[in-house]
Amino acid sequence: MAPAGRRRNGLASARRAAGYTQETLAAELYIDRSTVIRWEAGDHRPLPYIQPKLARLLGRSQEQLSELLDGRVERLDDRRQALGIAAVDGGVAATPLPRNDIATSNTVDDQGAASSSDDDEAAALELSRRVAASDVGNETLTQFELVFDDLAIAYPVTPPQQLLQRLRRQLSYVSGIMDVNKTLDEHRRLVAVGAWLSLLAATVHVDLEQQAAATARLRTAASLARHAGHDEIRAWCFETEAWRLLTNGGYRQAVDLSRAAQELAPAGSSVAIQATAQEGRAWARLGQPRETYEAVERVNRLVAPLKRPDQSEHYYRYDPDKSVAYVATTLAWLGDPAAEGYAREVIARLQLSEDSGKWPRRLAAANLDLALTLLATHRLDEACDATLQAIQSGRVVPSNHWRAAEVVSAVEARQVPEAKQLREAYEELRRGPHRPQRAG
Fold first, then answer.
1. 88: which strand partners?
2. Total-model pTM
3. Residue 11 CA: distances (Å) to CA of 19, 20, 251, 328
4. What DSSP line would sit under 192-242, residue for residue?
5. pLDDT of residue 117
6. Which residue ranges form the domains of the chain, and what is each CATH number?
7. Which of 27, 112, 200, 230 is deepest in the core (most CB within 10 A)?
8. Nearest alpha carbon to residue 395 among 373, 423, 362, 426
9. Residues 267, 287: Cα–Cα separation, whole Å
10. HEC states along 80-107?
């Protein structure tokens, strides 16, 4: 029987009628059992995005669910008045003070001093309870983290507009529970997930040449990363901005941002390697061979001890195969004929796994690298063929159109017979619906 002053809602009865225990219902909703307990106690309402699924599980309409939940929504002050009840929240018991210790007079005397002391103790217990209380739960956060990993793995093979829609939905979910009651550790995890999702969304915006949106997303990612104390994400923000500037001709700034990323990056991390590779590409565009080769050597040293990760498709987990592709791009931009061997190695390797759907954008990028190298060695017809393969793959990112345009302009200037066909394919690429991601 409910104690006096506590009005039970009908959620517990509806749950039992639907055949769920608190544990099984929590598992269906990817939340902690403690959250179900608080719902049934009326301490909190389920979040709006959870309510439709909860209603379905209970076999109720959303209107009926609202009626159940409106049976009792208790305030904190009401709980404090239920002095004989121990409130257990998130595993921390906040046991109320005995009734005979509560002051009943407003006069300033010994009894008033005791009341002040009691209030201090109650406040201390309440702070402890609030720090440990959570409406989010480990399961929910783990699901968010797994979804982010899925999106990062999907990045190489998913049309960017489609991926962007999925990212927007997840960011909306994260935003919706940002102000919900949670522990400090859970808050940090949620902020970190928001930062990762914002970072990946910024990368897709860069791919689509949506500069203002990319800048806004990067600023959000960097801000959230600072709040979470997550230097790895902050480093990725610098690396991503370096790439954005690199595609727009800001080569000197790209060098500086790549170096800033390396300074922040944890030693030996994926972002430390990728930022170093980004620096090398920027030096190549600046026509600085000594700095370019030095950066390539640093990448090779960092990659040497690495093993291939279990999920090599994950964009934010560097795998050893990436280094060959980066060297091909870097040397091709520098005009070094040695780029041809690296590019052909990448193409041969990726063609074997092309049917599996892995890394199709890296294969397109490798063909563009090969084309640039063939131009430098005056094999124009072969350069046209490699560029055409890249364009027709549908995997050349808008932010990389300029790489194809360099080949098109070069063969047109030399009046190569294949130039007309290549120009038509390039213009179709620019008009086409496919907007794939950047090489990475």
1. 93
2. 0.66
3. 13, 11, 60, 62
4. HHHHHHHHHHHHHHHHTT-HHHHHHHHHHHHHHHHHHT-HHHHHHHHHHHH
5. 53
6. 1-94 (1.10.260.40), 136-229 (no CATH), 335-440 (1.25.40)
7. 200
8. 362
9. 28
10. HHCCCCCEEECCEEECCCCHHHCCCCCC
- The residue type of 379 is R
- Contact predicate 89/61, CB 8 Å: no
Cα–Cα distance measured from residue 438 to residue 244, given in angstroms and rounded to the nearest whole number: 10
* H/E segment holding residue 158: none
pLDDT band at residue 376 under the 50/70/90 scheme = confident
pLDDT at 290: 97
Amino acid at 334: L
The more confident residue out of 115 and 365 is 365
Q: Which is more confident, 95 or 284?
A: 284
> Which is nearest to 151 in space by CA: 191, 192, 190, 199?
199
CB atoms within 10 A of CB 93: 12
- Residue-level length of the chain: 440
Measured CA to CA, the distance from residue 281 to residue 249 in angstroms comes to 12
